[in-house]
Amino acid sequence: MKNEPIIRRCKKCNCELMSDNKSKLCKNCKGERFSKIIKIGSTVGGVAITAVTTVFSVVTHRR
Ligand SMILES: [Zn+2]
Q1: Tens-place pLDDT, residues 2-29
Q2: φ and ψ at 22, to 5 degrees?
Q3: 26-60: per-residue pLDDT in tens?
Q4: Which residues does 13 contact at the CB level (< 8 Å), separation at least 6?
Q5: CA 14 to ligand 1 center in whole angstroms
Q6: Centre of ligand 1 from the C-alpha of residue 51, in Å
Q7: Residue boundaries of the structural domains of the chain
Q8: Helices (H) and strands (E) in the chain — how many of each?
Q9: Residue 28 in contact with residue 13, Cβ under 8 Å?
Q10: DSSP labels, the chain
């Protein structure tokens, strides 16, 4: 009996996954997802920094 490796495919693009890849997505799709999170995070972060800067300037102005 041959010990054939189980070929798993990416859930998103259906490409072949590496045997050491334990996730359901390939590296490309994972990277895409990651860059999206970074984009959203930077947008939220920018808004937060703007809000903090505004609050800080108001507080500083009061003194
Ligand atoms: Zn993929």
Answers
A1: 777 778 999 999 999 988 888 899 988 9
A2: -90, -10
A3: 988 988 888 999 999 999 999 999 999 999 999 99
A4: 26, 28, 29
A5: 6
A6: 37
A7: 8-17+24-63
A8: 1, 0
A9: yes
A10: ---PPPP-B-TTT-PBPPTT--SSS-HHHHHHHHHHHHHHHHHHHHHHHHHHHHHHHHHHHH-
